[in-house]
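Journal club prep, shared notes

We agreed each person brings one worked example of a sequence with its structure written out as tokens. Mine is Large ribosomal subunit protein bL12. I'm keeping it raw so we can talk through how to read the token line rather than staring at a rendered picture. Sequence first:
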Amino acid sequence: MAFDKDSIIASLKEASISDLNDLVKAIEEEFDVSAAAPVAVAAAGADAGAAKDSYDVELTESGDQKVKAIKAVREITGLGLKDAKGLVDSVPSVIKEGVTEDEANDIKAKLEEVGGVVTLK
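Then the structure, token by token:
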């Protein structure tokens, strides 16, 4: 079966973050694969006492200042309004992956300032 990869890529560019997330989950289930990066597997086997090199910042609760949380997510991620709103509306959501400890703490502080609850993973 032939497919037009350019039209698929064009469709993906127009999709929202939540639509892309649903697509990844569907592909994982259909083909019994994982979209997790191989680096994550290597990190899991590392020494438990070793310092962590990168963090994922997860917004677990948006708080009562949702508009400010959306603005903060837009500032942090560079996403458009619709995609940032989608992340805030669908908590828990990973806001940024693979950042340094300092950057993760800065992001956490910005989101907590507007009432969000953040977990660093």
